[in-house]
UniProtKB/TrEMBL annotation:
It is a multi-pass membrane protein. It comes from Jeotgalibacillus proteolyticus. Residues 15-84 form the DUF202 domain. This is DUF202 domain-containing protein. It comes from the Bacteria. The chain crosses the membrane at residues 21-45, 57-78, 99-119. It is found in: Cell membrane. InterPro entries: DUF202, IM_YidH-like. Keywords: Cell membrane, Membrane, Transmembrane, Transmembrane helix. GO terms for cellular component: plasma membrane.
C-alpha cells in the first residue's frame, strides 16, 4: 500500500495501530543495537582487554546485537506493509514466522550476553 493512496475511514483505527506497532519494533531494534554497542565499548574502555578469547567474544556480542537490530527492522518493515494490505483487503494473516525468527534471534543474543557476564566473573 502506498502512502499517498486513500483508504476508507473504517480502516483508520487498524492502520494506525499497525503503524504504532511498527514504530515500537523500530524503537526496540534501535535499543537492541545500542545495547550491544554499549556493552562492546564498555568492555574495551574499562580496560578488560587482554584475554583474546574474551575480546573476540565481546565483538561477537556487538555484531550479533547490531545484526539482530537490523533483522528486526527488515522483518518489521516487510510485515508492516503486508499487514496494511491485509487490513484493507479484509483479512489478516498471523505473523508466526516473524515472531519465531525474532524470538530465536533475541534468545541467542541474550544468551551470548549471559555467557559473557559468566566469563568475566
Amino acid at each position: 500500500m502506498r502512502d499517498n493512496k486513500h483508504v476508507p475511514v473504517q480502516f483508520a483505527q487498524q492502520l494506525l495501530a499497525n503503524e504504532r506497532t511498527y514504530l515500537a519494533w523500530i524503537r526496540t531494534s534501535a535499543a537492541i543495537a545500542g545495547i550491544g554497542f554499549l556493552v562492546t565499548n564498555l568492555h574495551f574502555v574499562m580496560g578488560d582487554t587482554g584475554d583474546q578469547t574474551l575480546d573476540t567474544f565481546i565483538m561477537i556480542i556487538g555484531i550479533a546485537s547490531v545484526f539482530t537490530g537490523i533483522l528486526m527492522i527488515v522483518i518489521s518493515t516487510v510485515d508492516y506493509f503486508k499487514k496494511n494490505k491485509d487490513i484493507v483487503s479484509g483479512y489478516i494473516r498471523p505473523s508466526s514466522l516473524k515472531i519465531w525468527v525474532l524470538s530465536v534471534s533475541m534468545f541467542l543474543m541474550l544468551s551470548t550476553f549471559l555467557l559473557y557476564f559468566i566469563l568475566i566473573n
